[in-house]
Amino acid sequence: MQPDSISHGAVKTEAQHRSDICTVGRWIHDRGFVASTDGNISVRLGADRILMSPTCMSKGMMTPDDLVIIDFEGRRVGGTRKPSSELAMHLLIYGLRPDVNAICHAHPPTATGFAAAGSALDKPILCELVIGLGTIPVARYGTPGTSELTAALEPLVRGHESILMANHGVVTYGPDLLTAFLRMETTEHFARVSLVTELLGKQVLLSGGDVEKLVAARARYAAGAQLAVPVPADDLATAAAGATERVTLTRSELDALIDEAIRRDRSIR
């Protein structure tokens, strides 16, 4: 699929995308996913433009006018501030994934702890994660803002929607900005649950059969989801309130999967 065959968030105006980026910036800042001026956020505006957060600015303090527009050669074509120093990472992901229209990079503490430990989040201990993200790998360390980082990420971008970056942080992406943010939130949530199980000294993993069923459910979801179409909402809060309506896996199917996993967990105990 060619990049120009995707709507690239065109359902929304540039002004709405600017507002959305600032909203997500406040969300990741308020949740403690970033500190100081850390993190970066972008949205694909079209086949040859992305809208991006600036460098050296708190993501919780951005205004729409602070954002910059970059072309796919990495040149600033709009705005007065400098783009994030990790622009190359965003360009890499957009180049490899024409279905991706938004990217979030942050340093959520628990997930970043796993990244610093070189530990992937790849154990099937939560059915929701298997359905939502599959596995979350660790990319080897690369100096931020250099080709080392993009080289470390490149082998993983096509097969995942969330990647831990060794000794650095997390990058998530998706068809729209709300999805990219929610994947960041899910990654941190899973990291916290994983940490608790490790502290307790016990992890009850889903069986191979359970995982196969969840992977099949994930495939049905992916096949039915309109991944190339951004959320047609006036703002992210409205989109979040109606997010469950976009899932093609029925509630009864999901409940059945969860109930089966719980029963198996209890039988193991």
How would you sum up this structure in a few lines?
With 269 residues, the protein is of the alpha+beta class.
Topology, element by element:
Layout: H1 14-30, E1 40-46, E2 49-52, E3 68-71, E4 76-78, H2 87-96, E5 102-106, H3 109-117, H4 127-132, E6 138-139, H5 147-157, E7 162-165, E8 169-174, H6 177-200, H7 208-224, H8 236-241, H9 251-268
CATH superfamily: Class II aldolase/adducin N-terminal domain
| Gyration radius, in Å | 18 Å
CATH architecture: 3-Layer(aba) Sandwich
Question: In percent, how helical is the residue content?
Answer: 40-55%
H-E string? HEEEEHEHHEHEEHHHH
What share of the residues does DSSP label as strand, in percent?
A: 5-15%
Largest sheet composition: 8 strands, mixed
How many individual domains?
1
Q: Number of DSSP strands?
A: 8
The averaged pLDDT comes out at: 83
Give the termini distance in whole angstroms: 47 Å
Judged by helices, strands and strand pairing, the structural class is: alpha+beta
**Spatial order of strands in the largest sheet:** 4-3-2-1-5-8-7-6
Give the CATH topology: L-fuculose-1-phosphate Aldolase
Q: Which quaternary structure do these chains form?
A: single chain
